[in-house]
Structures
1.
Amino acid sequence: MKANSPWVFLPLGGFVLLAIVLASGLGRDPQELPSALVGKPVPSFSLPSLLTEETFTEESLTGRWQLLNVWATWCPTCHVEHPYLLTLAAQGVPITGLNYKDELPAARDYLANMGNPFTHVIVDSDGQLGLDLGVYGAPETFLINPQGEIVLRHAGDLNERVWREKFQPLLPAAKPVTAQGEGV
Amino acid sequence: MAAEIGHLSLWLALAAALCLSIFPLVGVYRGINAWQWYARPLAWVQWLAMTVAMVALGYSFYINDFTVSYVANHSNSALPLGYRISAIWGGHEGSLLLWGWLLASWAAMVGWLSRSVPLEMVSRVLAVMGMIAVGFLLFMLLTSNPFDRTLPWFPLDGADLNPLLQDPGLIVHPPMLYMGYVGFSVAFAFAVAGLLAGNLDPAWARWARPWTTVAWCFLTVGIALGSWWAYYELGWGGWWFWDPVENASLMPWLAGTALIHSLAVSEKRNLFRAWTVLLAIITFSMSLLGTFLVRSGVLTSVHAFANDPTRGAFILGFLVVVAGGALTLFAVRASALRSDGGFKPLSREAFLLGNNLLLLTAMAVVLVGTIAPLFFEWMDLKISIRSPYFNGFFVPLTFVLILLLVPGVFSNWKRQDGNTLIRRIALLVPAAAIAGWFAARIPEPSPWQGVLAIMLSLYLILAHGDDVLRRAQAYNVGLAAGLRKLGRSYWGMVTAHCGLAVMVAGITLVSFHEVERDVRMAPGDEVQLGDYRFVFDSLDEYRGPNFDSTRGHFQVFWKEEQVALLHPEKRTYHASRQVMTEAAIDAGFWRDLYVAMGEPLKGDNAWAVRIYFKPGIRWIWLGALIMALGGALALSDKRYRRQKFASTQTGAGQ
């Protein structure tokens, strides 16, 4: 190291940059992530189904209150969350799955083995819809009203407490609109 | 009452830490000997106060004092006593208290074991550690007091400790990890003290080195424990997830590993002085950054504590003061640390420099991958970074690291004759390649990366075996006597490097030869996995102290011979209603058999069952333990045992 070499300031400069990036993340809670899309309709899309021959569009997400759950087999937290999704589904809460950047055979096996809480599963292999929705990682869960507008976005796992504290207060009645009988 | 005593002790500790960070330093600059002398007693007072606080919190857990909100949130009257005690560090506030207590303990130990270090240096080092303690105590007292009361409306029973943390592995994992994190504060304090003094001779490196090695050993064991815990407790058989919090522990480990090696150069050759100081600062800053990432709520993680922006702002501010301050001091003073004496491009110094650059590159890869989500957010991009990114960098970096490690061990300080080096390696490479090629055939044909990794592992082990024999023979007293003459620190290096080889072999085996099967099974069903047959015998239910459990009974046969009985469970914890998977594992040196209950399926008692065959997975943690053992061996070297003569020792065999 030469005397008075400007290099000695390099670590300090690098650290200042790092601190700025960290500070920019501070006000933000990744569990909340107030998506710019809250109050806006779901972006338009046209994507295949995981388990049937159907094609889904943004129209498929209208007509009733429902959850849109972003999941994948590579996501450890999704495994943790899965039993609770099954519980919700058993209570009659309609949940549409968005299989995000996943391998399809693995995803089908996963649902066959672990149980399927979803009324439909939309396949988003290249993550385009996820990108439009501002998905940050999996799992994420969106609450969508009958007009097909996003009411709430929750990043991280869905559990009893989150459901009681964040989702239920936003629903019109104590019990959400019942599923219209179509199972997969 | 205990909570108030604990709270008061924290303020007392803060007062001691404040005095510790001011008086000894003033004493040094004003030349007041008595004020310098106060450094050690103040460190001990601080330790005593923190110990009282720890005991007070432990006592509150012991008597189930649910008027203390931390106890109410992390314990339950039905929780077994062992877990009630380990619940001290089961949440944010309590784990901070553990951090603070360990910091005070390290400071007290430094005060106690530094008789041979000049008083001026001890005063500076303890003062820097006192400043760090001030920051942590303020953080605790202002934003995260573990002794806050819930009065007047306190709950009748507690919310229970997170079931994931109700596990023997988790009793020891955080203390080990924190011992490592906090231990690096000693190296940091020595670095800053050296910069303040403007004097970093080889003695400086000799004082700082054993402390750094101890911290590194603890961190190594702590990370391995965490990985082991994730493997058996999370229920899907992975051992590393590149989760932000895992990364937070890996970054100081990588920097700390670089630091250990660079300290060796600074001690033996009085070179790399500025670089070593910088590494010491980076290593501890990474420990603090880890704390920031876990507690600020900036990143999502399975480990994340309650997210709170005020806490995040405080730690970030603290990080800026500590790391920013130290780096500024470095920028001002580093020019004074010109290294005298040089080395040739082919020498042990050069290879160790390569080692340092590779380890720091690896650390940068983890750092970028971990905070990239923030960065992308800034640029309004939504990109998720997952294991392919980390593995894509880590595998080649490790390969190059191992390739360069061996010539580094073979080389002399100062300069190494190229021809001799090439002759030694020329024999080794084909030997390792042939042995590795055959070894990699044994389980089943591997992809080339797997074969290459096994070859590299054997290359490491053969090279060290060769080196041990050569050095022992070089004493010319016969092999057995020669082996005894080799120093402990040399044995430590050999052991730690072999630990790396074992770990790489384990990672390779499990990555390329594991078999994972998710199947639907009802009692009576069986599944064949290679040579192993898993039979699901029956299902029953039982009641634990604070949970209900559904338990499966499996028999495992290997070619008609029963080799294991496994009892995986699905537990529902009463207080939190959380459902936990308790995997059943038959652990073995060569392979693990792993059964976990997934979800109950429709139909007669059918379950989704995860059945895994994991060859070599134990070697990953075994390798880490061997590495830590290597560190411990190096610490037991005689030059640390007889400190009075330390200044004249140069260390045999290095």
2.
Amino acid sequence: MYLLWGFFRWILGYAIIEIRGVYGEAFLSLCMKREIDLWEIRRVCPGIIRVKLYSFALSRLDVLARKCGVTVEVRGRFGLWETLKRYRLRPGIFLGVFLYFALMLILPRFVWSVEIPNADPVREREIRSVLLNSGFGVGSYVPSTDFRELKYDLLLARDDLVFAAITMQGARAVVDVRFASDAPDLTDRTPCNIVASRDGQIVSVLVREGIRYVAKGQTVQKGDLLVGGIMDTRLGYYVVHSKAEILARVTDVSSQTVPLEQVRCERTGRVFVRRVWSFFGKEFSLSFRKDCPFESFDTVTETKCLSLGDRADVPILLTEIRYYQTEPISVSYTAEEALEMARNSLNEVDRVRLNGIEIESEYETVTHANRSVTLTKTRSLIVDICEDKEFYFDDKGQ
Amino acid sequence: MKQYPQQSPIPPMELLGNSRIRVDLCDGILEYEPETVKLRAGKRLIRINGIDLDLCNLSESTVVVRGTVSSVEFEG
């Protein structure tokens, strides 16, 4: 209650005055009779009483002070009204406050950001594209958006979606989607054989459907028939979709050549920075020059999103594009350095290429020729070499 | 504001522990010192003694005294 009164007094504006004279009590009594509210009355020293009262009552004090033979000195004026009076000659402040409240009213009616929490980056981009085609994105006007229609657009455009819901959380649109899991392909009954996808030696054979034509330990070449899809019986023949898992030992060769003398682009140290403000998807360049002044350069782009706290993203993006000038420099490597570079490069590529494949053995060969180093890795891998190969019948059934 | 009979000989008072005293139907302040506050209510005089007294609120006919009240005396 006391806080409420304090806030009320701050809104109306109050003043602190000092009553000087021996008849301070008489002055207070007279104020009571004239219904002038006083509070926090304190005698600061003999002959001086400090009092708070509403600012609008100050004009009535002169007459009372003369009657009581005291002097009244205003020590300060406080409160909202007094603050507004103090800044009345600065229209920019009032304009700023007005703009603040206007923007606070208007901006939440637009979408500031779109979040798709349950989608991987690729699907997220595709869903955003579908939403944009339906006219929904950052900067869309929320009251005129038909979310039900938008949801149906999304479900119709994407076959892999089983559920979609778009909810607004403040100015943030959250698109909740659920994807259908891929059903196992049990319906493929296309007649087919299984042939070898590469040369190798059979390590294990597991045939689920069809007639096996190879055995463990046998050597096969690419294209050899492994499992047949034509089942020949005494009553005739019928065809099946062959299924098998045939592992084979295969030889894998990969190589990487690194020249001992290379031309590399190095940064010279000169940088051109271009900044772009993005507001509701509209871009405003802060640099006069839009193209890069360097002939050869590499770029680093950094985008910062303004946010209020952890969850509220303001639809203002600051993109900073840094153009680093580069120039070609000739670099010479020793054979050891080149070999190490080739090994690193090869490992980097093979880590992705041979992910999940069993490597039985491997060895390296290094050749030096034409001012370059070539690293060749020969591996023995155990892989599934099955490859479906459909077959067709002519009109005669052959 | 609370309504009291016009002819009440003793002004209504509320004492909150010994830290705050509220006096209604008060006509004026005769003396105000940090140790003493003397009020007039009709024909009666009320003296509030204590330590570090100040007038918390002063409206048309109500006085609220805050501080450590040690005694209240009536005269008249």
